[in-house]
């Protein structure tokens, strides 16, 4: 059973998960042509994963067999586990709890595709629906308070398998970085009575120079204080604190927006490693006026060095205005893609 | 001129430094035998660096010529620059300031040695003295409030040159992670009237299982909430909030302690990439009872993935108790090393 331990000085939680060390690392430095090696995520390899939690499947196909389009399974080397009661205890000045939670893998397609940008718009939409469905389901569990959906692509971004997939980690405490965002936006709201993300949307529209893409329901921009070259945020225009409360028309549009942005990044940066994370509110809060869900995409062109670790200060050599100008110019055709 | 920009939500500062993209990357994935390629940090290459700020030199040798043992030069591709007045201004809801500060490189030896662990104890001591001397000098500048000394070793830790060196970045604001440590330890002090680091030393002594090394003036341990496999902290036993106030006998001992720990890590992990950072108090505070300087060493065996970025939660597959037990057993002889 993994263990959650809290740093007594800054309140940062660490998951000590010895079983994670056993996971296979099959990714290569240079991704090889699709399908050359065995991949447990490809159709036909269902017995190599844990039993599925959810799958979007063709009619008349059975769980854990062929016929699925998107499939969710428990991570075989989980950072947190769903079984058991939540025990919290102290150890002198230290605090710890057992690692109750969930760690799921969203396998995004049955064929061996390494890039989400190569999937069709419809496919990307289905993946976004799966994210929503899993959050809605997991928030029923009273032990759990936060669900984080993220994607690691490429070795430099921490991926260990190349088949296109994302992950969901659900935790029994609100992670410290999420607290910081909730608190920071709450403070702004207390002072000005407005959502800071809504204000950012207005200011980015007025300034124009950091905008990458502007659609009826979304604005995509390089944030003013970008930590990484070509960091890109996708922010819904309608205020909404919880991703799982997204409207159908928004979600459909987001499929196209996400595919567009990933295609632009792949062309601009020649298939970079990247992470994306959906930032959303904790399970236990109702819709709140100060927080605004969004997706942050972070290409991993540079390595994080000692200075960044120690200070929380990032050094970014590409001004976001330049990155946005570049990405705006990259033309892409989203009508294709594997279905 | 680099620019400092503040994230309006969480208060994180980012340095936008376009010139940094121009720096040369000469490090190899597999470090080659010493001295095979041109290195601007080797003796004889003084004209390839900026003019020296400080050097420990043999008598009768001149600045920027041969004859030095440890040499400090401005970083040629600085994240922050020392010239100019500090201008702060807003841009709508955003805050920014010009990138006033200092970014120095401490070249640790004139010969092409890639590992500090291969230097003699006396050499390591001299480097630790240089750290102190630079902090004492820079804190005279009223525009500057924080000095961070850190070391990146190996590509995975963000190093771009392999010749053994460390860096010093001095900033016009206190970095957010430092604030968190100062505030967290202040809260503990307000509540219990004791320094939390002093308490940690007591608890680690009592528990024993996370201790790597115990000397008259230092305790070295794997912290309870280790973020990384084999994360190791060197903590002075005497309460002292500022590294630059270290006593001579402590500093001499720390040379031996640091060399010992680095040798142990190199043997245990087969010359890992790593970062170390000296955590110390801001320039503008007097000696404070709640904060306690220390050094954090973070081997970089794993990559940081999306989950860690989004949450501030780390997943560590090696319990610190196991790491400490392993490191305790590794026997090293510190009497050798290049002089």
Description:
Two copies of one chain form a homodimer. Chain A is of the alpha+beta class and 339 residues long. Chain A folds into two domains: 3-15 and 25-174, 2-Layer Sandwich (HIT family, subunit A), CATH 3.30.428; 177-329, HIT family, subunit A, CATH 3.30.428.10. Helix content of chain A is 25%, strand content 23%. In chain A, the strands form two sheets. The first copy, chain A, has a ten-stranded antiparallel β-sheet, sandwiched between helices. In chain A, helix 1 packs across helix 4. At the A-B interface, strand 1, strand 2, strand 8, strand 9 and helix 2 of A face strand 1, strand 2, strand 8, strand 9 and helix 2 of B. Strand 15 (314-316) of chain A pairs parallel with strand 2 of chain B, so a sheet runs across the interface.
Largest sheet of chain A: 10 strands, antiparallel
The string of secondary-structure elements of chain A, in order, is: EEEEEEEHEEHHEEEHEEHEH
Biggest interface, which chains? A-B, 82 and 82 residues
- Number of helical elements of chain A: 6
Coarse structural class of chain A: alpha+beta
Spatial shape of chain A: globular
Entry keywords:
homodimer; 339 residues; alpha+beta; HIT family, subunit A; 2 domains; 10-stranded antiparallel sheet; 4-stranded antiparallel sheet; 6 helices; 15 strands; 23% strand
């Amino acid at each position: 059973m993994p263990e959650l331990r809290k740093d007594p000085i800054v309140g940062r939680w660490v998951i000590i998960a010895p079983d994670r060390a056993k996971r296979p690392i099959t990714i290569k430095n240079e991704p090889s042509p699709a399908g050359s090696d065995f991949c447990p995520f490809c159709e036909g390899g269902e017995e190599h994963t844990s039993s599925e939690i959810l799958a979007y499947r063709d009619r008349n196909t059975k769980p854990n067999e062929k016929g699925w389009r998107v499939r969710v399974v428990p991570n075989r080397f989980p950072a947190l586990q769903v079984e058991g009661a939540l025990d919290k205890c102290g150890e002198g000045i230290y605090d710890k709890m057992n690692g109750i939670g969930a760690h799921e893998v969203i396998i995004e397609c049955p064929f061996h595709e390494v890039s989400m940008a190569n999937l069709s718009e419809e496919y990307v939409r289905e993946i976004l629906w799966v994210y929503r469905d899993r959050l809605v389901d997991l928030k029923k569990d009273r032990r759990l308070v936060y669900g984080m959906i993220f994607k690691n692509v490429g070795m430099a971004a921490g991926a260990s398998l190349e088949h296109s997939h994302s992950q969901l980690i659900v935790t029994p405490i609100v992670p410290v970085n999420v607290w910081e965002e909730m608190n920071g936006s709450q403070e702004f709201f207390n002072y000005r009575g407005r959502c800071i993300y809504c204000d950012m949307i207005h200011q980015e529209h007025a300034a124009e120079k950091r905008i990458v893409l502007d659609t009826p329901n979304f604005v995509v921009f390089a944030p003013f204080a970008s930590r990484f070259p070509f960091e890109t945020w996708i922010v819904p225009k309608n205020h909404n604190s919880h991703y799982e409360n997204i409207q159908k028309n928004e979600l459909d549009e987001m499929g196209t927006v996400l595919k567009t942005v990933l295609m632009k990044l792949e062309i601009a940066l020649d298939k970079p490693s990247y992470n994306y994370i959906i930032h959303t509110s904790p399970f236990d809060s109702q819709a709140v006026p100060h927080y605004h869900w969004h997706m942050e995409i972070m290409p991993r062109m540079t390595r994080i060095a000692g200075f960044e670790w120690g200070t929380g200060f990032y050094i970014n050599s590409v001004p976001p205005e330049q990155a946005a100008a570049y990405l705006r110019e990259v033309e892409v055709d989203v009508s294709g893609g594997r279905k």
